[in-house]
Write a structure and sequence with these properties.
By secondary structure, the chain is an alpha/beta fold. The protein is built from 8 helices and 6 strands. It has a 6-stranded parallel beta sheet with strand order 3-2-1-4-5-6.
Length: 191
């Protein structure tokens, strides 16, 4: 059940500028996603973002995008990204089997995307500290439902250390200086 970076993809669902102001803990969720997104970029783990009807909800949060030096952006009309044929086929073509999932709203687009991923046979890791909804209890119920369906609840720290795997490499030393050490004293809020 350990995450491996060569099998992983980080999927961020609908962290959109027009939606985030009404999300309980929305900016904290973006901050956690951005931190792990930067780590993913360093470790060459693909980062994908979705946007639901961006003409209505705005594009992805600028504070998130500025942290990512490499990502793929998908626009969708279905709440669950797996219902989008092009997205589903492209994901399958990556050969990745472990999906780390986060975003807003946890009980709608994130949950429906997660259930679609599970149904398609992917290992799903629900990034608890970066998944939020307008009402916090909705996010908690979404995580509970996803986990009851086969997902595994994780935190950004768990994912980062599993991707790093060991502490005696130059990559770990760089990650430690840039990401892990500055983060050590920051409190974490779980949604």
């Amino acid at each position: 059940m350990l995450l491996q970076r060569d099998k992983s993809l980080l999927l961020m669902v609908d962290f959109q500028a027009g939606l985030l102001p009404v999300i309980d803990g929305g900016q904290e969720a973006v901050n956690e996603a951005a931190w792990l997104g930067e780590m993913a970029c360093l470790l060459e783990v693909p980062v994908w973002l979705t946007e639901q009807s961006p003409e209505k909800l705005g594009g992805s949060s600028a504070s998130l995008l500025v942290c990512l030096n490499d990502y793929q952006l998908w626009q969708k009309q279905h709440f669950g990204a797996m219902a989008e044929t092009e997205f589903r086929e492209a994901l399958n073509a990556t050969g990745k089997t472990q999906i780390v999932l986060c975003g807003t709203e946890a009980h709608i687009c994130v949950l429906q995307t997660g259930l679609g991923l599970l149904d398609a046979g992917y290992e799903l890791y629900w990034l608890s500290d970066a998944s939020a909804s307008r009402r916090p209890q909705e996010a908690a119920f979404a995580r509970e439902r996803a986990c009851a369906s086969g997902a595994v609840a994780v935190t950004a720290d768990m994912v980062a250390y599993e991707w790093l795997h060991r502490c005696d490499t130059a990559l770990f030393k760089e990650a430690h200086q840039r990401f892990l050490k500055p983060r050590a004293s920051r409190p974490v809020r779980f949604f």
